[in-house]
């Protein structure tokens, strides 16, 4: 067994000052860390590695840190690789020209470790020509490309990216490339079921990434990160997307997301979209689910929407009414705003996690486990149809009964519950998409202008403006954060004050345009220009979202592209 003193980071690989850091350097350091057992020795190697990078090529420090942390971007950008072992195996077989059978055999021989398989197969091959050395930057950039691929042929494109890395990898590089590809995915999956770094980090340190799924599994009382939906503009588009697939349409209720956990001892936990405790806010919900679960049900996790409800008039109330409800320590007898629960999914039942089941199976469990009670607890209204007219009518019915629109979900294929994911398998269709851009954006204010300015049609009332500026005044910072992207090309748009990012505003626009002055989504739809909003209107503060959950650059770009396609379709039709 080697000692850390035997591994001299500085001597492991040489490269010239200012040249990009070779990936081999990181791979060798990881190799040295892997055989260590003591935390101090591991940390020492990692520190030496970072120090060497800082001294020689400081520009590469960031990609090195991200790779070591098995991330490819800050959490709030929501980038994920979206690859599994099946895709990695395919890329391995194709790169090294081996058969699936041979890979499987090696996989069994080598303790089911795909990294070791990659290394063994690569080292058994004679290279005609030494490939050009891989750099950390190349690996990092390719991981980004993998994460950004979407659409029907994304698997094939991801596969090709993995292959370009593998052909250039030698020595222990293939092993660590595979580990990094797998690790990012494992940590992400575990996090989405147990979103608690307090649990994940100690488990990572003591058992390593491969034991993580075992060490950190789902626990009743810890909310799963909820699955969310992608916006689309109209029923025809959705029908086209889901051709040949069975799908179901549900009312999209306009209330508050609630994940309800019922433990075997009869206690109940209710969690918001953000995973915050909402148990004290809804004693009536606790009473209803306890009363309406069937006797065979001993534990469950329900995914629901809680809406304000006028029981006398039997009418669903708008979201604003629900906001009036007190948030903590609510006592039954004090409740003024009544609520109604619409359950649309079940994630756990009687000790069994159901995330991997298809929606039709989960739904069956849901319907069999509860008794409906009109006005108190019901299943989300749903139809399964592929008749365009029928769906249009269903959408109108939804809107007429006080809902925002529909959520359309795959039913028996590609229909598992995908925690924390804005999934392609849940599509939201809102009535108001039809008259402006696809969806509102959730934005974080980072700067402001003093004075009243022009605000006709901006959505701010006098009172709201007063309240917002009072809350933001305490957030003023002397200079912009290093990661703010802005342009000083036009003096008119240089703000008077910069702000600490602190809250999320829902803003709706009449459209999105390419702009030389604004920087949102720069580099995605245009190499040097960003995207700006036409006639933005403030809709409200999203108190249920934290800044990490604001719309990402990719979402802005997707929305811009969707709008472009729609405009193009309209133009084509006019021609
Ligand atoms: P929005 O502002 O449109 O609600 P969002 O980002 O908060 O967007 P999305 O995931 O995009 O949330 O939209 C789904 C949300 O709709 C869920 O978080 C949930 O609160 C709500 N919802 C209402 N009815 C349903 C339903 N039948 N199935 C799933 N979600 C539903």
TrEMBL record:
It is an enzyme of class 6 (ligase). Residues 332-457 form the ATP-dependent DNA ligase family profile domain. It catalyses: ATP + (deoxyribonucleotide)n-3'-hydroxyl + 5'-phospho-(deoxyribonucleotide)m = (deoxyribonucleotide)n+m + AMP + diphosphate. Its EC number is 6.5.1.1. The keyword DNA repair applies. Keywords: ATP-binding, Cell cycle, Cell division, DNA damage, DNA recombination, DNA repair, DNA replication, Ligase, Nucleotide-binding. It comes from the Eukaryota. Belongs to the ATP-dependent DNA ligase family. This is DNA ligase. The chain holds residues 118 to 692 of 693 of the full protein.
